[in-house]
Amino acid sequence: MKTIRLTMAQALLKFLDNQYVSVDGQETKFVKGVMGIFGHGNVTGIGEALERSAGELTYIQGKNEQGMVHAAAAFAKQSRRLQIYACTSSIGPGALNMVTAAATATVNRIPVLLLPGDNFACRQPDPVLQQLEVQSDYTISATDAFRSVSRYWDRIVRPEQLISAALQAMRVLTDPAETGAVTLALPQDVQAEAYDYPESFFAKRVHLLDRRPAAGAQVERAARLIADKRKPLIIAGGGVHYSDASQQLATFAEAFGIPVAETQAGKSILAWNHPLNVGGVGVTGTLAANRLAKEADVIIGIGTRYSDFTTASKSAFGREDAQFVNINVSGFDSVKLDGLSITADAREGLEALGAALRELGYSSGYASGEVSGLKAEWDREVDRLYRTEAAEGLAQTRALGVINETLQPADVIVCAAGSLPGDLHRLWRPAEPQTYHMEYGFSCMGYEVSGAFGAALAAPERDVYAMVGDGSYLMLHSELVTSLQEGVKMTVLLFDNHGFQCIHNLQREHGSDGFGNEFRYRDKQGKGTLSGSYMPMDFAAHARSMGLSAYTVHTAEELRAALLQAREETISTLIEIKVLPGTNSGGYESWWRVSVPEVSTSDKVVAAHERMAQKSAEARDL
């Protein structure tokens, strides 16, 4: 057996550089490169390997460990999970900074490979700088924190262990049902240890992502169930995007006259003006979709994990006899809501179920104009919100209307948290697939700017826009500097509404007078609470200090002009949009369950608890 003597870190990079995936006969190099921040836990191991033997892997210098993992996840998401960046960090705080982003990737079923440095396996210098010592179990280190947020976790304490660990890592990363964060904890001494690795370990590997076919019996059962229903509703999730099944979904819906509602991850799979696209469903859904959901007698979920926002905490479906048919590549998700399961790739499942329903001569029983009437009513509501003017300043829905009308059809918007996801799910009008990039599985504040950088890396032919509130921007914006360093342009649309207004709205809806969520000075004249005047912040000046182009706008006309100017910029640009707090869209016949205190000194809170308890009793348990 021929061998090559390499350090464990060198061998890991050589292995990653030779991994490919193939879907429908199209081959793609799977690992594009490595994002990293060096410290004493990785600089002389993986750092040396990247410097001298990286092969074709590109190294990108992150500025914050959480941010760079968000960027890597967004890159993979925008690439439909066909290509990734690995992420390397030092031990201790450098590693732990990646945990939040690891959870974000896992919740959203996005592949990211995390390579945190770890303590010395030999333990000779213990406790090394930044080492976490657990007196009851000395095998535990900071990297054990990744166990609960990873789909696969391993610690390489001998260089030869890399062989089996790397193969298992690739198994999970390329599995559409099992993918998420994969963590290989790398003790810093083992990274630099040499081993005679077999040459075969570094051979080109093509991971065949064969589409999982639908079982005939599952399809037959589902078709019989649907055949007896008159008011079906499709809920399209992110799995439709990853399956590249936009055309198959449109064909299926049109063949049987079934309206299509979208999750946050599924939005843009059909153009907004498709006659059967009724928009977002659930807590942040449209009036059209939510009314159809209440009357639906069968819900066909395709590639969705049925989050509480999608199901309105299981209250969205008003008929007691409503049943569910779930097409999902993951068996874990396909059985949710006690549904009939078709465990299959979305495209394969749609085609098989469509063939079975055509044999049965099926057609939905919606009255003429029923779906189109609801859609037209909602379109008029969006038009109204897009035109809403406020004497005091710029309304958030008006700003979104200007942006939606000014951006090009192929442009990508990236968002994650705050009041913007609700407005975008309801109001945004995408014309092409893969142009609506929303991280809402974890709704992680701070994803937006990093995610836009990752999406721009994955789609250099498109203009990419981060939609971010001032709260999320303050949490994490470091990868703006990386975008300048890499010459990857993105545009940040920063909605300045003076605080965490989404949660401010939520607490006031449930009995609070508003507490701790706005960016105000402390009022020392009263009770010393954060109820003084708003804190003035010049985000455009902050962006310019980092080297970006920047604009500040207060009106719709200024916003439109700034968007046109930003398109001509050659570097990353920030547009600071001064919007009025509380001018986002509201709920449309929907509900979300949150905990409200049963006992309080406030009558408003007690009344809110009673309303919540009543609604909770009406929701489904399954």
State the domain count.
3
CATH class of the largest domain: Alpha Beta
The poorly predicted ranges are none
Coarse structural class? alpha/beta
Computed over alpha carbons, the radius of gyration is: 25 Å
Arithmetic mean pLDDT = 96
**How much of the residues is beta strand, in percent?**
15-25%
| Strand order, largest beta sheet | 5-4-6-7-9-8
- SS elements, strand count: 23
What's the CATH topology label of the largest domain?
Answer: Rossmann fold
- CATH H level of the largest domain: which superfamily? Thiamin diphosphate (ThDP)-binding fold, Pyr/PP domains
The CATH level-2 architecture of the largest domain is identified as 3-Layer(aba) Sandwich
Shape field: globular
Largest sheet properties = 6 strands, parallel
Distance between the termini: 56 Å
Helical proportion, percent range: 25-40%
Compute the number of helices: 24
List the keywords.
single chain, 622 residues, alpha/beta, Rossmann fold, 24 helices, 37% helix
How would you characterize this protein structure?
The chain has 622 residues and is an alpha/beta fold. The chain has three domains: 3-208, Thiamin diphosphate (ThDP)-binding fold, Pyr/PP domains (Rossmann fold); 216-374, TPP-binding domain (Rossmann fold); 390-498 and 535-578, Rossmann fold (3-Layer(aba) Sandwich), CATH 3.40.50. It is built from 24 helices and 23 strands. A six-stranded parallel sheet has the order 5-4-6-7-9-8, with helices on both faces. Strands 14-13-12-15-16-17 form a six-stranded parallel sheet, sandwiched between helices. The chain has a six-stranded parallel sheet with strand order 19-18-20-21-23-22, sandwiched between helices. The model has no long low-confidence stretch (mean pLDDT 96).
